[in-house]
Write a structure and sequence with these properties.
Elements lengths: L1 H12 L5 H13 L1 H16 L2 H4 L3 H9 L9 H16 L1 H14 L1 E5 L6 E4 L5 E4 L4 E5 L9 E5 L2 E4 L9 E4 L4 E4 L3 E6 L3 E8 L2 E4 L9 E3 L3 E6 L4 E6 L2 H5 L5 E8 H12 L2 E4 L8 E7 L3 H12 L3 E4 L2 E4 L1
Parallel strand pairs: 5-7, 16-19
Antiparallel strand pairs: 1-4, 2-3, 3-6, 4-5, 6-9, 7-8, 8-11, 9-10, 10-13, 11-12, 13-14, 15-17, 18-19
Helix pairs in contact: 1-2, 1-7, 2-3, 3-7, 6-7
Length: about 325
């Protein structure tokens, strides 16, 4: 059935279909949304393909068919293309190209950091992304249209975006909104309830909010935007950039931190709430460092710096 549908579509687009075939296709479109959407997308893709790619080489198609397309493709989506190309090569050279184009345009690749350390990834345009633990980055893997500078992020990542000669914008899609990059460095983080963006350099535009009452917002350097999914509101505040980039290093550096900044860092990195019981220390500013991968060593360092007793209890760090 799928092969018959594609045969009707490719003959229609190539203007080779008979009146009976056109009538059949119209009937399918009226009762099957998949057929209607597939035809629209196929026509859109075909119109974008350059004439060079549209040239039909019958001998090449026959060779691919006879060799059963021996080229090994590594990605699952590309394996789908191989299976469909075998069918398409039997129909016509045009259908071969249309099949390839249709699925190629939808092809994506996903990089997931399942290790216990951060993972750096270089995008096709030279931009650098550092993925935190359990973060995943997805983007287009299309051969025909190349990298479109659009990525989807789950988890936390730090971006260093490269400028291109054509000044094409870079967009990061998150669960709650999109981030349009204007040449910059920034940190993106989201969990069950919040999505946040901290701007380190340049500027970004936050747009496409799931709550339409929120206007598009441009961030300034040193600002933190926090979107609350439950309340569906956006708050922007000044922040210490070091707090939100500490996970990038194996060493914590808190230089001239106030206690609120220290509390925010401990919450982000270790999911621990800082409780200051000693009122004399509430307005204290501190400087120091400690290995970031060992909370016990961080606590020992704070004991020395604050000259105070510190106790860890479940989800809290208490300074007595």
């Amino acid at each position: 059935m799928l092969e018959n549908i594609w045969n009707l579509i490719v003959r229609y687009i190539s203007k080779e279909s008979s009146p009976e075939e056109e009538k059949k296709l119209d009937e399918l479109k009226a009762h099957d949304e998949f057929v209607n959407q597939t035809l629209e997308e196929s026509m859109e893709i075909w119109n974008k393909i350059s004439p060079h790619y549209k040239e039909y080489n019958k001998d090449r198609i026959k060779q691919l068919r006879n060799n059963k397309i021996k080229a090994a493709l590594k990605i699952k989506q590309q394996q789908q293309i191989v299976r469909l190309l075998k069918i398409a090569a039997i129909v016509t050279g045009f259908s071969f190209l249309l099949f390839f184009s249709y699925f190629d345009y939808k092809s994506t690749v996903t990089y997931t950091n399942q290790s216990n350390s951060i993972k750096k990834h270089i995008l096709p345009d030279g931009s650098e992304v550092v993925l935190n633990k359990n973060a995943a980055l997805t983007y287009s893997n299309s051969i025909l249209r190349n990298f479109d500078r659009k990525v989807k992020l789950n988890g936390e990542a730090y971006f260093k975006i490269s400028k291109t000669a054509d000044k094409k914008q870079f967009t990061v899609f998150t669960r709650d909104f999109s981030i349009v990059v204007l040449g910059t460095q920034f940190n993106v983080r989201h969990d069950a309830n919040y999505t946040s963006v901290m701007l380190a350099k340049g500027s970004v535009l936050l747009t496409d909010f799931s709550q339409k009452q929120i206007k598009n917002t441009i961030l300034k350097v040193g600002e933190l935007a926090i979107y609350n999914q439950e309340k569906q509101n956006l708050k922007i505040k000044k922040t210490n950039k070091t707090i939100h980039t500490a996970w990038l290093s194996d060493k914590l550096n808190f230089q001239d931190f106030n206690m609120q900044e220290l509390a925010e860092m401990l919450q982000l990195l270790y999911n621990k709430k800082l409780i200051i019981q000693n009122k004399k220390l509430q307005n204290r500013r501190i400087s120091g460092s400690a290995p970031s991968d060992d909370l016990d060593l961080v606590i020992e360092a704070l004991k020395i710096i604050l000259n105070a007793e510190i106790v860890e209890k479940q989800d809290s760090i208490i300074v007595k």
